[in-house]
Amino acid sequence: SVKKGFDFTLMVAGESGLGKSTLVNSLFLTDLYKDRRLLNAEERIIQTVEITKHTVDIEEKGVKLKLTIVDTPGFGDAVNNTECWKPVADYIDQQFEQYFRDESGLNRKNIQDNRVHCCLYFISPFGHGLRPLDVEFMKALHEKVNIVPVLAKADTLTPSEIKKKKLKIREEIELCAIKIYQFPDCDSDEDDDFKQQDYELKESIPFAVIGSNIVVEAKGKRVRGRLYPWGIVEVENSAHCDFVKLRNMLVRTHMQDLKDVTRETHYENYRAHCIQSMTRMVVKERNRNKLTRESGTDFPIPAVGDMTDSQTEKLIREKDEEVRPGDPQAESAHLLGQPPADHEQRSQQKFETECGSHAGARSHLEDEAL
After folding, report:
1. How many structural domains comprise the chain?
2. Lowest-confidence segment of 143-147, 245-249, 258-262, 293-297 by average pLDDT
3. CA 52 to chain centre
4. Where do the H-state alpha helices sit in the chain?
5. CB atoms inside a 10 Å sphere around CB 148
6. DSSP 3-state assignment of 338?
7. Are residues 111 and 167 in the same domain?
8. 118-127, 140-149, 277-286 — which is least confidently predicted?
9. What SS3 state is found at 53?
10. Same domain, yes or no, for 148 and 74?
């Protein structure tokens, strides 16, 4: 596994201008968006949400990582953002579906895992807490993917403002019953340093981040940061932002746990739903075939997928009435295409004729006896 390397898919979502591209480039020391064209205001009015993928190979200490970045340009930028998260949810489901098909196939050794393991959702630093769009997006996806909220452009806020905003966002996430990624609890035998690191990581949610691809000189050292009239903000300085914590969490400490939660929780929920749906379809198909055989009719029956439960129950009742035991003569009359009343009249005439013939034969035998 180490020789083969690891696959990890990271999705970034949030409205334009929050520094998503800059943060991704800063996290993985690459330039994934050098050929991107920025749209003007008029083009963004009618823009729809698109899904774009970028793949980069990273190697650290002999360990290879195939990183796939899934971007969502156009999210939250239009005038009408109704269900703008649906293409994102559909994309995640499509990856689950593809993996389910590959897993159910014959060649299972070389399955390509394109499932989304983590979604960084960028929250605007402006305003008070979460916006309705933020709540709706996270509630629509929290059962499908590990959501890690990120407070974008943290250099626009003071330390006290960051602290208050983080607390406000955490309260609203809990109030709205949004299930973000939960860091695993430490074991009791873990050392104090690790427990402190885990506590700080949990308290950092949402991660207040700053991104920069520019190298500046600060205190005689060249660092990545942003130069302002009042000083320099260092991207990799933990006193300035949570960039280092986020990078370590994604790449070093919690990458495997993110993949495990994706496999054991989100994908298993999707897989169970698929199997349940397939089972219901098979049961309905069997019932439909059974009714067709028992009724002996050749008229077309609606497809299972096109029938509602009420239509299915109605069809079953009709078939029960057709196959229920009744008057054999009435049934044979029905099969001969004769009306029931006409058939009864003919049966009565036949009975009277037979009775008359029996009476005549009896009188003839009595006369011979005398």
Report:
1. 2
2. 293-297
3. 18
4. 20-28, 41-45, 86-104, 132-141, 159-175, 192-203, 243-248, 255-261, 268-295, 309-323, 328-336, 340-369
5. 21
6. coil
7. yes
8. 277-286
9. strand
10. yes
Find the helix packing angle between 268-295 and 309-323, rounded to 10°.
30
Q: How far apart are CA 301 and CA 59, in angstroms?
A: 59
Q: pLDDT band at residue 3, thresholds of 50, 70 and 90? A: low
Residue at 33 is within a domain: yes
In this prediction, residue 42 carries a pLDDT of 60
Contact between residue 114 and residue 68 where contact means Cβ atoms under 8 Å apart: yes
Residue 363 to residues 67, 212, 359, 366: CA-CA distances in angstroms? 108, 122, 6, 5
Alpha-carbon 151 to chain mean position: 24
- Ramachandran assignment for 33, one of left (phi > 0), alpha (psi -120 to 50 degrees), beta (any other): alpha
Same-domain check for residues 82 and 221: yes
Is 218 within 8 Å of 235 (Cβ atoms)?
no
The helices-and-strands tally (H runs, E runs) of the chain is 12, 9
CA distance linking residue 195 with residue 193, whole number of Å? 5
Domain boundaries, position 353: 297-369
Helix (H) or strand (E) holding 182: none
Residue 263: pLDDT over 90: yes
In this structure, are 93 and 207 located in the same domain?
yes
Best-predicted range by mean pLDDT (162-166, 305-309, 331-335):
162-166
